[in-house]
Amino acid sequence: MQRLAVYCGANAGQDPAYAESTVLLGRAMAKRDVELVYGGGRLGLMGIIADTVLAEGGRVHGVIPEMLKDLEVAHTGVTELHIVKNMHERKARMTDLTDAFVALPGGVGTMDELFEAWSWNALGYHNKPFAILNIGGYWNSLIDFLDTMSQQGFVSAERRKHLIISDNIDDCLDRLAAACNNETGSFTW
User: Fold this and answer.
1) ∠98-104-108 over CA atoms, to 5°?
2) 23 closest CA partner among 1, 2, 44
3) Where are the alpha helices (DSSP H) in the chain?
4) Which residues pair with 30 in a beta bridge?
5) CATH number of this structure's domain 3-180
6) Is the pTM of this model over 0.90?
7) Tens digits of per-residue pLDDT, 80-122?
């Protein structure tokens, strides 16, 4: 895994553990020489992950729509900033740039990105692994709901297992890297 797309909030959230874990993830990525692909913002957890990876000597690829750049929320200090027309192009470009995806705490945008990565995978548009880093149990209710979707027959048990869930940074990165580096050299279901 050379590049990891990190989906996370443009806010830092109420629990200081979210920001603390985001810093730890950024450090772990830089230590492993994994480049960051993210939404290009300078605020909240997005800004924290970018600043941390940069401070640790890593490379950061931001992708931001023109509208958000014009609102001055773009992080202009990243290694490479891609300006795109809209959110659809943002998600497509991030998918093209990355080897895997992980969601940290965030809002509807983070959920949108995670579910699009998952659905594009299910439809065969890419074969890249995706994960939730469940900091402080943030995603517990969603995980329970995904289990309900599976139990009710809307998501197969096999497809449900494709979502990597971990509350440990090293475990999460190890599992994503293993999925990227399986015997066939790609992530397949």
Assistant:
1) 95
2) 44
3) 16-31, 44-55, 66-70, 87-97, 108-122, 140-151, 157-162, 169-180
4) none
5) 3.40.50.450
6) yes
7) 999 999 999 999 999 999 999 999 999 999 999 999 999 999 9
